[in-house]
Amino acid sequence: MKIKSILISQPKPESGKSPYYDLAEKLKLQVDFRHFIHVEGIDAQDFRQERIELSDHTAVIITSKSSIDHFFRMAKEMRFEVPDSMKYFCINESVARYLQKYIVYRKRKIFFGQKTIEDLMPSILKNKDEKFLLPISATGKDHYSPVLEANKINFTVAKIFKTVVSDLSDLADVNYDMLVFFSPSGIDSLLENFPDFKQNNTKIAVWGTKTAERVENAGLEINVQAPMPNLPSMAMAIENYIKETK
User: Fold this and answer.
1) Distance CA 57, CA 134 (A)
2) Which of 6, 132, 194, 235 is least enclosed, having the fewest CB within 10 Å?
3) Are 154 and 170 in contact (CB under 8 A)?
4) Residue-wise pLDDT tens for the chain (246 aa)?
5) Rounded to whole angstroms, how far apart are CA atoms 76 and 57?
6) What are the boundaries of each domain within the chain?
7) Which fold has domain 40-162?
8) Does domain 5-36+166-244 fall into CATH 3.40.50.10090?
């Protein structure tokens, strides 16, 4: 079966640039983007019931861009003016740079790791006397608290946003030759929107082992998997598959 159309389960790139656009042009494909899941903020009224005082904290551990957006949203809704002295400990540099949307980056105390909470721990341990706030999703798995607890860090978990399934009902009569997923929640969204989904000739591409496990548990077949040693990006893996199956 020749691949002519691909649906990427991510939002359309705001910049207008993407390796998938390059792939579409190179192989004459139709490539569309659609967010299968989206993030919603926890209401301030519900957050107040947790009895967490933002003003009690002197540092924030940031694990995603969504954490940044909803930390500052919640601060505004709670009428808490984030002090210039607040310290930010970010999971990686890309997330740290995103702080520029809300603060003057060069005038703040900002630390970042490479990829994981373990990478970030040396910086956190050097500032162990701080009272840390950990803003996370109410629906995702908390991979961070066990590491912080093991290192006896004084921190508070603040569940200030949640990941929810997007409404995909308008896609009911739309067929793509390939669906591309980057998280288990994307598969959950597909099956929740279309409980009678049958793969038939549709090819499925997945990113990461957790996503692959979710696909297999759902009784679906994986046709493309990334990253691989020789195919470090999803776009490269898809291109390789299309060329091999011509």
Assistant:
1) 10
2) 194
3) no
4) 789 999 999 988 877 789 999 999 999 999 999 999 988 899 899 999 889 999 999 999 999 999 999 999 999 999 999 999 999 999 999 999 999 999 887 777 999 999 899 999 999 999 999 999 999 988 877 889 999 999 999 999 999 999 899 999 999 888 999 999 999 999 999 999 999 999 999 999 999 999 999 999 999 999 999 999 999 999 999 999 999 987
5) 16
6) 5-36+166-244, 40-162
7) Rossmann fold (3.40.50)
8) yes
Confirm if 148 and 134 have CB atoms less than 8 A apart: yes
Structure-token pair, residue 34: 């659609």
Beta strands in the chain (DSSP E): 5-8, 30-33, 37-41, 59-62, 87-90, 109-112, 132-137, 155-165, 178-181, 203-207, 224-226
End-to-end CA distance of the chain: 8
Residue 244 CA to residue 33 CA, distance in Å, equals 24
Provide, for the chain, the percentages of residues in helix, strand and coil under a 3-state DSSP scheme, each rounded to the nearest 5. Answer: 35, 25, 40
CA distances from 118 to 15, 106, 156 (A): 32, 25, 18
- Give the C-alpha separation, 179 to 202, whole Å: 7
Q: Which two tokens stand for residue 88?
A: 């930010």
Q: pTM of the full predicted structure? A: 0.73
